[in-house]
Amino acid sequence: MAVNIDTLIITTPLAKSASDPLALEVTGAQALATLPQVVRRLDNGAVRMTAPTKGASSKSTHRTRCEWKEATYWAMNSANRHFSHQRMVLEQVNSAQKVVIAQMHVKDDDSPAIKVFWNKGRITLGFRRDFDQVTPINSTLLAGVPLGALFDISIEVTADGSAKVIAIHDGREADSGTLKLTSSWYGRTFNFHGGVYNQVDYSAATPAEDRSVCVISQLALAHA
């Protein structure tokens, strides 16, 4: 079954224009139709997303991404369960060997509640219990996940602010246990992100071939 990204928003590593260096954002359908160098449909229905390390970035950062995100934000109490699942392969990773692969982002803030990384062959997690928490609680979910390997990442959040992250690879499954978001998050709205977001700053000396590339073969989003 083909992965459907048509109505999602894709943040690309391409500039908006020659005069505007900020990262271009388009719908998934537009990306598939016009930007094959960064978003491409494969013959089996999967989607390949490519983020050169040197490229266009958001705001004042020097980090690029090719990342999908939900077009609509949601409140935790708007549904009993909010769910995001990706089955993916990392074909290539930047020179720092660290890339964000999934997030539970919060509107109008740069510090997500949940951020999931592939970091030198490990699936790791950064979690903020409180909205204004500067340093996340970091942990390793699953080690021994090499480049080229198929793995699954799921994020689940309930209306009362209980969250869980699950990673599966090669018959092994690990989860975060219950992550409890405090009431400081109530009143905020969120959306899920996924794909590849480079965790290394680019410079004039960054090689053109340095990049992160993923192939997403399953993607499911639910709010019910």
Automatic annotation (TrEMBL):
Keyword set includes Lyase: yes
GO molecular function terms noted in the UniProt entry: lyase activity
Keyword Lyase appears in the UniProt entry: yes
Keywords assigned: Lyase
Highest taxon above the source species: Bacteria
Domain Alginate lyase: 3-223
Entries under Pfam families matching the protein: Alginate_lyase2
Coiled-coil regions listed: none
Signal peptide location: none
Protein known as: Polysaccharide lyase family 7 protein
Lineage: Bacteria, Pseudomonadati, Pseudomonadota, Gammaproteobacteria, Pseudomonadales
